[in-house]
Amino acid sequence: MTVRLNHTIVAAHDKKASARFLADILGLEVSPQYSPFIPVEIPNGVTLDYLESPGAITPQHYAFLVSEDDFDTIFDRIREAGLTYWADPFHSRPGEINRNDGGRGTYFDDPNGHNLEILTRPYGSGG
């Protein structure tokens, strides 16, 4: 059996600005609008489809596995953008990265309060 995640919908107050934020931080492209969605395709083929959502947004967590070199580049963008970042998902260790499983990781928020993460080693992969 073959099962792969194809896309997920990401609620946003401003779908264009939110898609642009993610694409700029990760070094990706924003795809043309498709129906009511603004998609950002991740290199593994999964698409995050941003959808305008009025009212309160329930924050979600999106983790991106990146190479060591990409981590450096993305982390530089996070700092250049003046974003607060944390070593943990509970936001109790600001201004730090973690070294979980022998890799590196950090968390930061998007404009809608979604908790984004970049990490270089999958959880439980050892170190």
As a percent range, the share of helical residues equals 10-25%
- Which H/E pattern describes the elements? EHEEEHEEE
Q: Radius of gyration, rounded?
A: 15 Å
Number of strands: 7
Largest sheet: 4 strands, mixed
Return residue spans where pLDDT drops below 50 for at least 5 consecutive residues. Answer: none
Strand content of the residues, in percent? 25-35%
What is the general shape? globular
- Strand order across the largest sheet: 4-7-6-5
- Straight-line distance between termini: 31 Å
Give the number of helices: 2
What number is the mean pLDDT? Answer: 96
- Sheet/helix structural class: alpha/beta
Explain how this protein is built.
By secondary structure, the protein is of the alpha/beta class. The strands form two sheets. Strands 4-7-6-5 form a four-stranded mixed beta sheet, with helices on one face. The protein has a three-stranded mixed beta sheet with strand order 1-3-2, with helices on one face. It is built from two helices and seven strands. The protein is globular, with a radius of gyration of 15 Å. The model has no long low-confidence stretch (mean pLDDT 96).
Detail the topology: elements first, then pairings:
Blueprint (H helix, E strand, L loop, with lengths): L6 E6 L2 H12 L10 E5 L5 E6 L8 E5 L2 H13 L4 E2 L18 E5 L5 E5 L8
Parallel strand pairs: 1-3, 4-7
Antiparallel strand pairs: 2-3, 5-6, 6-7
